[in-house]
UniProtKB/TrEMBL annotation:
Residues 402-799 form the FH2 domain. Residues 1-12, 154-168, 351-364, 376-390 have a biased composition (Low complexity). The keyword Repeat does not apply. Residues 673-742 form a coiled coil. Residues 13-23, 393-406, 804-822 have a biased composition (Basic and acidic residues). This is Unnamed protein product. It holds the Pfam family FH2. Keywords: Coiled coil. Residues 1-87, 144-177, 338-406, 804-825, 916-948 are annotated as: Disordered.
């Protein structure tokens, strides 16, 4: 019945493994690719993966028959080849099994090594404890010698009272451990069904030797008094260091976690002795008094009596959950575990008697006058048991008298409540309450809560009359509420057995009568503590009780009834539960080993890593050394340009072409399908549950040793079962530890955190990947996907050809653009040289300014701020007509916009025509003089002085005014606009009209006389006289300048006398 262990692996197991491996190699290899099979997921012999074991055995039998009696028509060479293949497969399986056995042997040797180390460590600890005990005995002898020598000297202190010197003594024969007052309550807990481990933990927390629980008949005490019964050495009588007001705050800092070095620095800064931080229980130097008593008895303070812990036990009594109380204790920097051990010595009390004596010596007090006597038999007990004797005995719960019931005069509606058990009343608030103090209006209560309001009085009268006539019949007593009665009655009816039969079956541990289902029902309906309390406190006639109450009363005669049936169920279910757990362990071990040893799977991961790094090459995710395993579930979701083809299909296609042997990797990991449903946490919880129930069983076995009930086989049957179960669980625990280590190593090898990725998640990822891997492989073999790949290859070839043609066209275009760029560069350089030459001739030193003006004009034209005609005019104004006729054609060549280029060429034609007309007009007006003055002017001249009357008026030639260019021209232009705007008084409409007439004159749309007449109509004549010369300086065309100045001079001849004209 024990689970499969490594030590049990023998030849038969290897043979079974060989047969299984042979059958798996023929039928279960999911990814075998045979030339006769069309899909890697189909077994070569056509059998199904999930075929039952019986069918497999039949197939094996048929194979053996065929091997023994080959048919005549088969080819012997083919048959020999087949046998050779079988032998090779068997050898491979045997090799795998041998490797696994070697691995198990290594694990066993490692476990054995650890066991030996633990034994050595245990032996070393025992030897150290023995040495410590010997040293203690030597110290005791030395103390006796010192005491004897001290007794010879005159006593320096008063002798201690006799009551303080002598303690309780034994009767000379000692007391058995189970009857000793310090251990009695723990044996009671054991008999109540509490697991032995928990009882030992309580004993250890209370400072009692837990080993005594295993030997209840051990004798404690002897003829000599124990060490605790002797007088205690004189105490210092002063204040302890930790209780001193000046030092207490520093010990609080130490409890809060502050480093001791830092605290000592604070103590030194405060002028205190920092060395006292290391001796908190030593008396304060100088605090001892001469009048202190020589001896003092030790008073042990329990946890619940300690003022620091007392309030928390009050909270528990008030009904606050223990978990919440423990949280409050932790927040107050107290040990929360002490809430479970209220009778244990408080950690805040002074040291024990031996410690007190030592402190007295250290404090400089005289040693005790009487030597300490040591009981030799007491040396065998541990130090914990010695300390336990100093603790006071826990007061027993007072036995409460039975409370009388108050019977109402009429039948009332009952209040269904849950009574507080009698054994816990003393520790609750109900102990301080007495319902007899409450004043009630009984009559009103009976009237308001009577069962039948209408016929209550009639029924009472009828009952009285019947009671007078018919003798009273006993009434059935029901202690439980109706719902509970109904549920238990239904369960009892299903048993079809009496309570006596059930009790006998429980004593006999009869699994035929009481199966697991019956035990489960018995456990589910077992009475609660309150119900047990009600049944035990019932002192009426048992015959009057209901069937449910009688059923429970009969079963409760079984000692520790509930614990017994739980142990019985544990035994019945143990084998099936262990086998199920062992099977789960084997599955996880197999799946872990298969993934660990699969080289083909790792090669698949290599291909995926290469594909992913290439896909992510242009992103920060590229250049990865590895990837998380959840990436495997994303391969079939990443679609290509054809949504039917995913990255998984591409991976399979690459593996078929580059590494076809790794496609069969799924055959190396067949157990991942089952492993994905299992959990290490659940297995750990199951093992913990098994051990907890085993601890309960062992406690019940120890408790039932002294039951001595006729027909009771519990101790006889459960004792060997508990031993066997313990061995089985130890072996199972070792297997689980090995599995946990192997799984953690496997998961860590993939870069995952074993604490976050459990077997269910890990193997589910692998199983889904294998499923999609197979699906993609099958689809790749279909005609549909073959056609997809052929179309994709053809489309790729066409795309590559088109791409090559596109690259050729792009190269030609780049060559053309380069030639055009070079040509444009030459054209632009020619423009710059023309402008530079003109500026050097007409405006030396302002070459960069003129070039900047040209660039601004070109930029304005390129941004459609000016028209082509305006561009030609601006260039003409900048560099003159002759230079502009050379620049404008080259500027047109630099334009990439064909429409603009054509518009500029058309404007250039108009510009040349206009320049041609101006030249012809200029030829006609060249060397012309100003026209003679009018007759009125001659008459005015004749009326002048006589010396001028006979003179002839000769027309004066007009001298040219130098135009301004560059920055000077800009400043002059800005000054003209500001003065004109001021003359208009800020009128924008008049300003627009002025700008329009100025542009028209510049474009030769109006004559100089028309423009001058507009100025005279718009401004004051004096302002016009100042404005016209400034406007003339802005005109680069000399003909326009002369025409404007001529118009000014003709209207005002006096201007001819001014300089510059």
């Amino acid at each position: 019945m024990s689970p499969v262990s490594v030590d049990g692996v023998g030849v038969a197991d290897v043979d079974r493994g060989n047969n299984r491996g042979f059958r798996d190699s023929l039928t279960s290899n999911l990814m075998v690719i045979d030339e006769n099979s069309g899909s890697p997921t189909e077994p070569t012999d056509g059998s199904e993966d999930d075929a039952p074991v019986e069918q497999e055995s039949e197939d094996d039998a048929e194979l053996e028959k065929k091997a023994e009696a080959p048919e005549a028509d088969e080819d012997p060479a083919a048959k020999a080849k087949e046998y050779e293949d079988m032998v090779a497969q068997l050898q491979a399986e045997n090799e795998k099994l041998r490797n696994r056995v070697e691995k198990f042997k290594r694990k066993i040797s490692e476990a054995e090594r650890r066991r030996l180390e633990m034994e050595e460590e245990h032996a070393r600890a025992v030897s150290e404890a023995t040495a410590a005990a010997a040293a203690a005995a030597t110290a005791a002898a030395e103390a006796q010698a010192i005491n004897r020598s001290a007794s010879e000297r005159p006593a320096q202190v008063a002798p201690a009272p006799a009551s303080a010197e002598a303690g309780p003594t034994t009767n000379g024969t000692g007391v058995a451990a189970k009857d000793h007052p310090d251990y009695l309550k723990y044996f009671k807990l054991l008999t109540m069904g509490l697991p032995a481990e928990q009882v030992k933990m309580k004993m250890q927390a209370a400072g009692v030797d837990p080993s005594m629980l295993d030997d209840p008949d051990a004798i404690i005490g002897g003829t000599a008094p124990s060490t605790e019964s002797t007088s205690v050495s004189p105490a210092a009588g002063g204040i302890l260091v930790k209780d001193d007001e000046q030092y207490a705050k520093f010990f609080k800092l130490l409890k809060m976690g502050m480093p001791s070095e830092q605290i000592k620095l604070k103590m030194s800064a405060s002028g205190l002795n920092p060395d006292l931080l290391d001796t908190p229980d030593a008396p304060m130097p100088g605090s001892s008094s001469a009048g202190a008593p020589a001896t003092a008895s030790i008073q042990v303070i329990t946890v619940k009596e300690d003022p620091a812990y007392e309030k928390f036990f009050k909270l528990v009594k008030m009904g606050m959950p223990p978990e919440q109380v423990k949280m409050k204790m932790s927040a107050a920097d107290l040990n929360a575990d002490l809430l479970d051990t209220p009778d244990a010595p408080s950690p805040n009390q002074k040291a024990a008697a031996a410690g007190g004596a030592s402190n007295g010596l250290l404090a400089g007090l005289p040693p005790p006058t009487e030597a300490v006597k040591v009981d030799p038999s007491a040396l065998k007990a541990s130090s914990a048991s010695k300390l336990s004797k100093a603790a006071p005995k826990k007061p027993e719960e007072p036995q409460l008298p039975k409370k009388e019931t108050v019977k109402p005069n009429v039948e009332l509606r009952p209040l269904f409540w849950t009574r507080v058990p009698v054994n816990v009343v003393s520790s609750t608030v109900w102990m301080k309450l007495n319902d007899s103090h409450a004043e009630l209006d009984v009559d009103e209560m009976e009237w308001m809560f009577r069962k039948n309001p209408v016929e209550a009085a009639k029924k009472m009268d009828e009952k009285k009359k019947e009671a007078e006539k018919v003798p009273a019949q006993p009434k059935e007593v029901l202690l439980f509420d109706p719902k509970r009665q109904q549920n238990v009655s239904i369960a009892i009816a299903r048993f079809k057995m009496s309570s006596e039969d059930i009790k006998n079956a429980i004593y006999a541990l009869d699994g035929q009568k009481l199966g697991s289902e019956v035990l489960n029902v018995l456990i589910s309906i077992s009475p609660t503590l309150e119900e047990i309390d009600m049944l035990k406190n019932y002192d009426g006639d048992v015959k009057l009780l209901g069937n449910v109450e009688k059923f429970f009363l009969d079963l409760l005669t079984i000692p520790r009834y509930t614990q017994r049936i739980k142990c019985f169920r544990y035994k019945l279910q143990f084998e099936n539960r262990i086998l199920e757990t062992q099977a789960q362990l084997d599955t996880l071990v197999a799946a872990t080993d298969q993934v660990t040893e699969s080289d083909k799977f790792r090669r698949v991961l290599e291909h995926i890593l290469a594909i992913g790094n290439y896909l992510n090459g242009s992103t920060p995710r590229g250049g990865a050394y590895g990837f998380k395993l959840d990436t495997l579930m994303k391969l079939h979701t990443l679609k290509s340009v054809d949504p039917r083809v995913t990255l998984m299909h591409f991976l399979l296609r690459q593996l078929e072409e580059k590494a076809p042997d790794v496609i069969t990797f799924a055959g190396e990991v067949p157990h991942i399908v089952e492993a994905k449903r299992l959990s290490l946490d659940q297995l750990r919880a199951d093992l913990s549950s098994y051990n907890t129930e085993l601890a309960m069983l062992k406690g019940q076995v120890g408790a039932s040793k002294n039951d001595h009930i006729e027909g009771d086989k519990f101790y006889e049957v459960m004792t060997p079962f508990a031993k066997d179960a313990e061995e089985v669980l130890e072996e199972l625990g070792r297997d689980f530890n090995g599995l946990e280590t192997s799984y953690q190593e496997l998961v860590s090898s993939f870069g995952e955190d074993p604490r976050k990725v459990g077997p269910m998640e890990f193997f589910s990822i692998l199983d889904e990947f294998v499923t999609e891997f197979k699906k993609a492989y099958r689809q790749n073999q279909t005609k549909e996907y073959q056609a997809i790949y052929e179309e994709a290859a053809a489309a790729r070839a066409a795309a590559e050809a088109e791409k090559a043609e596109q690259l050729k066209r792009e190269a030609e275009e780049r060559q053309r653009q380069e030639e055009e760029r070079q040509q444009n560069s030459a054209t632009y350089a020619e423009i710059m040289s023309i402008i530079t030459a003109w500026a050097g001739k007409h405006s030396p030193g302002n070459e960069d300014t003129v070039i900047g003006q040209y660039k601004d004009i070109s930029r304005s034209f390129g941004m459609d701020e000016i028209t082509a005609d305006e561009f030609c005019d601006h260039v003409r104004q900048c560099v003159g007509s002759k230079c502009a006729s050379k620049i404008i054609p080259n500027s047109a060549k630099l334009l990439s916009d064909e429409a603009k280029q054509n518009a500029l060429l058309e404007a250039l034609a108009r510009f040349k025509e206009q320049v041609k007309k101006e030249k012809e007009s200029k030829k006609q007006q060249r060397n012309s003089l100003v026209s003679p003055p009018s007759e009125g002017r001659e008459r005015a001249g004749s009326s002048s002085a006589g010396r001028r009357r006979n003179k002839v008026v000769v027309p004066l030639p007009i001298k040219d005014i130098e135009p301004v260019v560059g920055e000077e021209a800009q400043l002059l232009h800005k000054s003209i606009l500001e003065s004109v705007l001021a003359a208009f008084g800020g009128d924008t409409k008049k300003m627009k009209s002025f700008t329009s007439h100025t542009r028209k004159y510049g474009n030769e749309q109006i004559t100089a006389h028309e423009f001058y007449q507009y100025l005279m109509d718009s401004f004051d004549p004096d302002f016009v006289g100042r404005l016209v010369p400034d406007l003339a300086r802005l005109l680069q065309d000399s003909e326009k300048r002369h025409a404007l100045i001529r118009a000014l001079c003709e209207s005002a001849p006096g201007w001819a006398k001014f300089a510059g004209l």
